Each structure stands twice: as structure tokens, then as C-alpha cells.
């Protein structure tokens, strides 16, 4: 056996701990372990060339773009992410204020600044508030089954639909208004899919739904980007802790392994990488995403994991939350607008749209969040060679829960998506990008993906007539 992993230098004697995966879970674990009195020899084996995993901030569209995680949910003292962010000075005065930390949101996404129906007309905020109140009330009630002896139906989706039907029977409005109300409710179902990382609330079990702990605090963002957090953790680690471009293939455990460089010493674990490198260790912490584990369960652990652990991995769901960024030279929204809700007319939570999803994927988009632009000073600092003020362009970020494919956007583009473990996953060697479409328009769609391992993203340049209804809606509204 190789003394150690490829070109990576073998450590001396002492306790060796390997962390597989360099996302926030792996980085957080290794930072804690660094403080352990046994001072173990620590290494993080990361598949990609960067740390942070699904936390990734980029400077684009004249501002900070969060390709992955965006908000600190429940930013208050009980939240370790908030604590670290505060410690590293990554939050603004407002985010740190006591007032912000005390807000009780109940875990519900705030109301939109404006709500557009897909035909372009606005939906009255009064109606949106009425339906948000109904929907959030139902979500709160769905959480109350946590300690119940039994549930009326197996899933949150079925429960919500049953209750919506019950309420609908009492609606006294005309047919058109009733249809609009269902479409608004469908938009809230889409938001909840994003929150739960699923393409259907029918896949979310009702009994344990209340396990999710909602912390106080109004969701906040990192003015300089979420990645500042993982960068700070990285900077606090001893040199050479991170080993990049080392996708782990198999974890051989419960064994007795040796290496030439440490004669007489045996290790219970041997981590084997795709490139043939082997790392013996006393302990291994696995922090790869659940989606990866579901797909590679048969080969990732040798011997296989105990039955109950393997069953848990198979049974817990893993979905996709996706983002698309749209850039405009001029905003079509009001200056104080933060969140634009999109209500897809003729949709209803009571209808199963899964079979049509490949053609109507965009109807899973919940709306747009206005991204803050850099001030002129930042722009000048960013691009000093420009020599003059660069007017900040404006961008929107739309979120979608569930499987989202880009095929209807642009024929040459293949947007990665993660389906159930039985579906083939996109090959990691295939670039998730498309060549610019000749005569492409000014709107750039930037698709991000949460597929494992790590994030892959791509730019899609589209011409105006190739724009999907969601982007047409925004352009026409302008
Ligand atoms: C689009 C999007 C938006 C989100 N928004 C929010 C939000 O607003 N707020 C929030 O709190 N959360 C959000 N999340 C969720 C949040 O990003 C994740 O929960 C969190 O980053 C997961 O961290 P992790 O370390 O567990 O996993 P990851 O960040 O996925 O890290 C796992 C690491 O393991 C590596 N890896 C995978 N396979 C291997 C292998 N075989 N060998 C070695 N390394 C491997 C990967 O490359 C990756 O670096 C969002 C996620 C996405 C995708």
C-alpha cells in the first residue's frame, strides 16, 4: 500500500482524523476538532477545487450573487451560523440588532412587495395576505401532529390539500376569483417546496413535520457574501488541512490497515480516493451530501453500513432547490421592491402537475428577489481599469423548489437536476454550460444547481424569443 495519499505528505504518529467533504459541515467539524486536547492530525478530503460546497458567493451582475445558500434563517443567539457570522464581523448593524433577532416569523417566508399574475396583471396584496394567512395557518397546524398518536393522512401535501378543499367549499366569490385564489395558494405551495427542498409536499411526511425548530430572528443575508463565513473558517485552520480535488471513492472501515511510513501502527479505516490515493485514519467523519450517499451507497462503504443506517439514507428524501438569475439594464420594479411573487394563473395545488413538469417546469418558480447592487465605489474598486463610474446593473434571483430542467429554455443547455436515486445523474465530466446563442439578447440566465458533488453552474445566453414565459413576464412588465 502507498504510504499515504498520493503527493500528500504522510503525517507523523498520533491520532489521525479525516473529514470527507469540505462544505460548511466538514469545515465546522474540523474547526472544532482543531481545539480538541488530543490535537489530532486533521485533514479534509474535498472532491472539488474549492471549499464551501453549497455555500458559494460570486461577484456578478454588479453585486454579490449567492449561487447557493442565501439567508441565515432565524438569525439569533441560538443559531451557530449567526454566532460565527457575528464573531467574524460579517453582518451589518441591522442584522445584529436585538430588534431583528427578536422577530418571530414562525418560519414563514415574508410577504411579497408585489404580486404579478402570469398574464402580467397585478394581484391585490389584500388577496395575497388573506391566502398567506390561510396557508401559514395550515402549515402551523401541520406541525402540531408531531406528538399525535396518528395522522389523518401520510403527507403534508395531502393534509394541506384536504384543508384547502374544505376552505374552498366556503368561498363565496365568482369562479374567476376562486381560480385566482387557488393559483395564489399554488404559489405558496411552491415556496414551501423550496423551503422543504422537495418537488412535491406529497413527499414530506406529516408526522415529523413539526420536528423542524424555528428560531427567532428575521432572515438576513451576508452583505459581502455567505462565502465570507467559510473563507474565515478556512483561514482559521492549520496549513495543509485541506486536500482539494480528492473525490473519495470508498471508505474501508472496521478493518486493520497499515502503511509503510508508520511501521507497526494499524488503522481501523482506509479512505480510498478516485485517483487511487489512500489515506489511513483512526476516525473518519463523513459530511458528503445525502444525495451523494443515496446514489453511491452500494460502493461508498466497505463493508456496507449497518442496515438501519442504510435504510435511513434510503428513506430520507433529498430534493433540489434551484436558482436562476436574470439581469436587466434598467429595473422594471419600484425602488423599494424586494420580493416579486409570481402567480401562475390556471394552476391549482389540487391538481397533480408532475407529469407535465418537463414542459411547465417554470411554473415551479416562486418569484424574484431583487439583488442589491454594489455602490459606485465598490464598482470602481472592483474594476479600476474602467476609469469611470460603472452604473450598477440590476438583477433578480428566482428560486424554485423541485426538479427544474433547462431544456425548455435553450435546446443546447442541459441543466443538471437531481432526481430520485433511481434516476441517472448527470455525468460530472459534462460541462453544465451552453455556447452563446447567436443573436443572444441582453438577459443572462445564470443557472445554479445543487447537484452533488459540489455545485456546478453555467451561463445561458438566450435570445428574446427563446425566453421562457417567466422571463418574458419580467421583460413585458418593464
Ligand atoms: C440553491 C441553494 C440555496 C440554498 N439556500 C439556503 C439558504 O438560504 N439558507 C440556508 O441555511 N441554507 C440554504 N441552502 C442549503 C445549504 O447551502 C446547505 O444546507 C449547506 O451548505 C450544506 O452544507 P454541507 O457541508 O452539509 O454540504 P455541502 O455544502 O454540499 O458540502 C459537501 C461537500 O462534500 C463534497 N463532496 C461530495 N462528494 C464527495 C466525495 N465523494 N469526496 C469528497 N468530497 C465530496 C462536495 O464537493 C462539497 O464540497 C441552499 C442550498 C442550495 C443548493
UniProtKB/TrEMBL annotation:
<protein>
    <submittedName>
        <fullName>Polyamine oxidase</fullName>
    </submittedName>
</protein>
<dbReference type="InterPro" id="IPR050281">
    <property type="entry name" value="Flavin_monoamine_oxidase"/>
</dbReference>
<keyword id="KW-0285">Flavoprotein</keyword>
<keyword id="KW-0963">Cytoplasm</keyword>
<dbReference type="GO" id="GO:0016491">
    <property type="term" value="F:oxidoreductase activity"/>
</dbReference>
<keyword id="KW-0560">Oxidoreductase</keyword>
<feature type="compositionally biased region" description="Low complexity">
    <location>
        <begin position="420"/>
        <end position="432"/>
    </location>
</feature>
<dbReference type="GO" id="GO:0005737">
    <property type="term" value="C:cytoplasm"/>
</dbReference>
<keyword id="KW-0274">FAD</keyword>
<dbReference type="InterPro" id="IPR036188">
    <property type="entry name" value="FAD/NAD-bd_sf"/>
</dbReference>
<dbReference type="Pfam" id="PF01593">
    <property type="entry name" value="Amino_oxidase"/>
</dbReference>
<dbReference type="InterPro" id="IPR002937">
    <property type="entry name" value="Amino_oxidase"/>
</dbReference>
<feature type="domain" description="Amine oxidase">
    <location>
        <begin position="24"/>
        <end position="339"/>
    </location>
</feature>
<comment type="similarity">
    <text>Belongs to the flavin monoamine oxidase family.</text>
</comment>
<feature type="region of interest" description="Disordered">
    <location>
        <begin position="419"/>
        <end position="446"/>
    </location>
</feature>
